[in-house]
User: Which sequence fits this backbone?
């Protein structure tokens, strides 16, 4: 089965470098210098990775077959793929990053906390990137104790957030008729000013640069050998030693 490692983006500079939309949680392995990758469409490749680098949260790559801007512009939109056993990617409680984007984030009582806008891989666990109703950004550790439920059918994620993780103590709940109404937290819920929230729980609101991959909040890999593509786990590291998961090449990224 062909799985997508990355999708080639815009040309950068004059020497053939391109920006990559990375779809794997172990880019240091899949995009290591010297790696030859198949492409979709196939006639464009294969392409050999000459080098990669990080700049302002984005990944850039130079391929041995592409050493000028004209060539770089011609491969924009091409998918870089690898052949993987389909059994390696079967896993319960795992999702592609693009499946999470757009989900409504609720607290356990049904109050709206925000909307998922991305997934950010980190060494300890992935971070669910959430835009709050006031426009601020919160990062939620993708672990079972905090992200208690992901329901793709209902389009929501349930987050049992510790104090200070979200900034606003006045939340929005959707009524039975579908109209939004302002509601305060229950009286026993702690209230923080922005500065107090930062002291109590850390001000984790930053700009977000989502990457691809699947996230398994439960830290279990039942799909095969470690290192399977583009599945990052809440309980496992995403530093290259943990399992991963990649989008199927035949699917649109």
Assistant:
């Amino acid at each position: 089965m062909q799985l997508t490692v990355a999708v080639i983006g815009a040309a950068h500079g004059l020497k053939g470098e391109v920006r990559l939309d990375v779809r794997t949680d172990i880019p240091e392995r899949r995009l290591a210098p010297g790696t030859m990758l198949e492409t979709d469409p196939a006639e464009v490749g294969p392409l050999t990775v000459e080098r990669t680098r990080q700049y302002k949260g984005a990944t850039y790559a130079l391929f041995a077959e592409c050493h000028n801007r004209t060539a770089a512009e011609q491969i924009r939109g091409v998918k870089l793929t690898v052949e993987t056993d389909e059994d390696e990617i079967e896993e319960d409680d795992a999702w592609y990053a693009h499946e999470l984007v757009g989900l409504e984030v609720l607290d356990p009582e049904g109050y709206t906390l925000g909307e998922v806008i991305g997934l950010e891989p980190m060494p300890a666990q992935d971070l669910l990137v959430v835009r709050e109703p006031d426009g601020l950004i919160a990062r939620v550790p993708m672990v079972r104790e905090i992200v208690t439920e992901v329901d793709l059918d209902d389009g929501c994620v349930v987050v049992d957030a510790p104090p200070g993780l979200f900034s606003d103590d006045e939340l929005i709940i959707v009524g039975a008729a579908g109209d939004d109404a302002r509601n305060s937290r229950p009286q026993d819920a702690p209230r923080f000013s922005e500065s107090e929230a930062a002291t109590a729980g850390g001000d984790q609101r930053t700009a977000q640069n989502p990457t691809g991959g699947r996230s398994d909040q439960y830290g279990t890999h039942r799909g095969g050998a470690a290192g399977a593509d583009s599945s990052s786990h809440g309980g496992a590291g995403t530093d290259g030693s943990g399992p991963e998961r990649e989008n199927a090449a035949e699917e649109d990224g």
